[in-house]
Structure formats: structure tokens, C-alpha cells
Amino acid sequence: MGALFLVQAVSGLVLACHYTAHELYAFGSVVHIVHDVNYGWFFRSLHSNGASVFFICIYCHIGRGIYYHSFFLKKVWCVGVMMYIILMCIAFLGYVLPWGQMSYWGATVITNLFSAIPYIGLDITKWVWGGFSVCDATLKRFYILHLYLPFLLVGLFFLHMYYLHQVGSNNPLGVEDYGDLVTFHPYYSFKDFLGVVGVVGGLLMIVFFSPDLFSSPENFIPANPYKTPSHIEPEWYFLFAYTILRSVPSKSGGVMALGFSVVVLFFLVLRPKSFHLGSQFYPLSQLFFWLFVSSFLMLTYIGMRPAESPYYELGYYAMVLYFSYFMFGWCLERFWDYFMVHLQYSRLGSRRGNWGVLGIWPFNLWYHGSAELSWKDL
User: Fold this and answer.
1) 165 an active-site residue?
2) Residue 54, CA distances (Å) to 3, 25, 273, 291 in order
3) Which pTM does this prediction carry?
4) Subcellular localization, per the record (predicted)?
């Protein structure tokens, strides 16, 4: 991800040298970059597709952290979620800059979400616009924020690394053992090098052979405030949240659900700890995790479809499954821990002639601890 961020920074700097942040010239400046600037087509495609590949890596990173319970490293996790939110803001602002049809109407739809805030929502929306609708002032503000927010992201990155190096990285075994450490070089440095080559190589394949893979056809048309596209949709990495937004009938409820779909990652640090760190030790939790991943992919797919039956109903069920993982995922791990203690205590009780009150006493053993049964007996 560090290599991709560097690619985005360099390509973005080149594009900024030729881009014009004006509602009359923004679309034409992008066309000028692609057709007239030396290798402009390459840097433009590299920047736009690089954002998509970046988010693929981000979602894999977040999914890995959830699977192996890395959210118990609370400071590391919270800073990482803040980086994710800022990255979403940067990507949205950058999506508006080409000033095509989908860029303009996407900005209109997303900024209108502020109007759902009671009493002050409309004033906030006009303040963001710099007028009574998305206009030249909006484009200039988005351009400035798109340039400067990455510096905040870099600062959070170093804070993320600082907290991570204080406690050490998580591992698939979920244990803290410093006796079998290996040096970073050459083992991990070579592994990281192969990862960088693979990801950047895949990005270059997209740039050279399918540069419009993640682009919307509507965005090749200049922005027209008088003609609304038949189906407005954001970039694919926002589609899961967009589907959640339109799956709730109420506007204010949909905005709250959209925000909570991202903010809910913060609440994972409050999740009760299980005996083992990671879903890999819990079969039911593994099943629920992959159902959660399936719901995320389903929400992303449904976001590409029109808001009609059966996509509306499927989006609602996928949204329920998405939030259910965060609300009830820990219960399956607690149940599995209780089940294993219950089973082992039954075996020990049959040998010792002391069964206790099954269903209550094993739970007290598990919750409060007991010298009679240690985890070495499991």
C-alpha cells in the first residue's frame, strides 16, 4: 500500500500541473491531459485505476484485521479506521474533479446528504457548495482538499506505524511470543518486494490493456446540470455504503445507516475478548465472517443495479447481514468457548466424579476462572 500511495502521489502531482479547477474548463483540461500532454494518458489512467487497486488492498487489509482480531490493538486500529475515512474523502473529492456527468451528479447526491441533519443541514449543504448548488466554488474547494488531505493521511500513517511498533504486529496464532523472531531483512523485505511487484504489475496491466475498467461511461460526457443520468452511482469502492443508503426508506435513517456502516469499525475495539485471538480457531465465527464478506460483495453488486425489485429487497437483507456480523459475531465465539469448556469439564467430571450443575457451573468456570480447571486441560 505504501508503493501504491507513492504511485498516486507522483501521478497526481503530474496531473495537477495541467489540470484547471474551473467548471467551464475542468473537463476540457482532462481531455487535454489525455490527448495532448506527453504520456498524459498514462498518468491519468495510472491515477484513476491506482485508486481502485489501492482500495482493493485496503479492503483486504481491513478484512484480514477483522479475521485475526487485530482490532484489539486499539490505538493501531482506531488510527487505521481514521485513515480509511480520510482516504474515502480523498477518493470522493478526486472523483468529482474530472467534472463529467457522473462526477457532477455524484457530488450533488453526496453533498445533499448533509441536508438530512436537523435544523442546520441545509445551511451546511450551501456552505459546502459555496452557493445554492454544486458550482465552480465547489469544484475549487474539492480540488484544494484533494491536494492537502493526503498530507494528513501521511501524518496518520506515521502515527499508525508508531503505535504498531509499540505493541508489535498480530499473527495468525494470536500469541505474543518474542522467542522465535526473525530479522526483517532478507525474509520480510523480499516478501514485501514480491508483493509490490505483483500489485504494481497488476495495476500496469490494467493501465495498458483495460484503462477504462473501473470508469463509468457517463463520466465521459461533460457535466450537464440540466440532465440527470438515469442511474447515478459512485465508484465501486463506495457502492456498499451507497446500497445501504438507499435500502432504508427514510432519508435521515439512510444517512445514519450509511455513516454507521463505516463508523461501526471503531466499535470493534469494544468487542469482548474470546479465549483465542482470531476467527481461525472458531468454525462458526469463520462461517459468519465469510457470510459478512459475501454481504459486502452483494451490497457492492446491488449498488450497480437500479433501485427496483428484486435488488431493493436483496440489498435490505444484505445490509441486515452486514450489520449482524458486528452486532452478534462475538456471541458465536463466546458460545464456542462455553461449549468447549462444557465438553471438557464433562470429561473431567466423569473422571473425578464431580459433574456439578451442567449448564451453569461450567459457565461460571469459564467466566470467573477456577483453579480446578485450567486451559492446559483443554
Assistant:
1) yes
2) 10, 28, 31, 24
3) 0.86
4) Mitochondrion inner membrane
